[in-house]
Amino acid sequence: MKNFTFKGFMVPVFTPFKADKSLDLEVIPKYAEYLKQKGIDAILVNGTTGEGMSMTTQERKSVAEKWAVERARLNFTMMVQIGGTSSADVFELARHAESIQVDGVLILPQLYKKPQSEAELIEYLEQVATHCPNTPIFYYHIPKYTKVDVNISRVISLARARLPTFAGVKDSSANLEQIVHALDAGVTIFLGTNAIFVGSLALGFDSFIMTPLNIYPEMNQAIREWMAEGNVTAARQLQKELNEKIREITEKGEFTAAMKAKFNQIVANFGLNVGGVRCPLKDVHF
Questions:
Q1: Where are the beta strands (DSSP E) in 177-258?
Q2: pTM of the model
Q3: Which run of H or E residues covers position 139?
Q4: Residue 205 CA to chain centroid, in angstroms?
Q5: Rg for the chain (alpha carbons), in Å?
Q6: Residues 168 and 191 sit within 8 Å (Cβ to Cβ)
């Protein structure tokens, strides 16, 4: 099995769509170059930000394959989100992710017959893991959307005992009180909530997957540097400014749609546009 060693900022990338909402894969190389210029060394493909759950299995494969080319060209760490569809398709996406040698797979819980306990969730992850036996796997905890609100510390404890390829969690619950207890569990915890970035750094978090990293990577980098230097006052002030920017953006519409529209506005001078969003999301315009 591969060892997962990445720490730091991982950007959940938007999926580029044309005006007719078909994939626009030719945008991805320029997008990848933009992120690299901004100091980003890791990407998450087909997650919530990437609207993976609004794509067919073949589309998700095509997007992952295109990013895998950029991963090799620009030396990214690459994770692919494979959940949010039928079990058969999740298994197929797991096999595909391993075939293109991604660094890790991120897995949502089963979304119709939802797990009722941590043990049931682990059983599902075990089934998925058999289809990518050499690839580190991560559980995607985002109860706001999945309505699966398990205890993450117990999930990690069970997974470490039963899943040899279990490497960690992406936690987007914003429940620092619960997730902080897992920091010393020997796995990678990716925090997925930008609003509590300063607080998480103070508690010892060192890995992050946050949509605003597409738009304001310099602000996040500066906050991390201020905290490392012990200048908490400066870090808190910059966090407040970042939170206000995000609030203003998301007043325009649903989070992913608004962030994608803002990204297009910011990168227009770079000659980059990743298009709008797919149903059920609605396009936002700035």
A1: 188-191, 207-209
A2: 0.96
A3: strand 137-141
A4: 16
A5: 18
A6: no
